[in-house]
Description:
- 60% of the residues lie in helices and 0% in strands.
- It is built from 7 helices and no strands.
- Helix 4 (58-70) crosses helix 7 and helix 5 (76-85) crosses helix 7.
- The N and C termini lie far apart (59 Å).
Amino acid sequence: MGVKVVDLKQRKGYCGCLDDEIPSDDIVFLLTYFVLSNKDRIYEVVDIKEKGKPVNPPEYLVSLLIYSALRHVDGTDELAEMARFHQKFRYACGDLQPSGRVLRKFMQDYGNLFKQMFSSYLKFSVYFRIN
């Protein structure tokens, strides 16, 4: 019969956050900060319904859509899969994991908001010379 050896130096039950997995100079941090700091512009356009199922916060959907445009991810189903499994996409959407249907509906309803936020982010990044 074998003897079980317990390694006390091993970290068990490590539950890190997404910040630990992404380099601190990555563009997703700046993008998310930019979108969250312009949250009031988003809520001027998006009307939140009080009844029914809680909606996904639109600022995280905008952040995810802008990051996907920067990374050339085109389809909403592919984007939903990336938001489920890829660390940086999970950070961009606040770890919400929206479905492809939710993303399609958001783009249909608020496509102009996405275009405005995307162009203002590009102006912001050019002004500060961000890659």
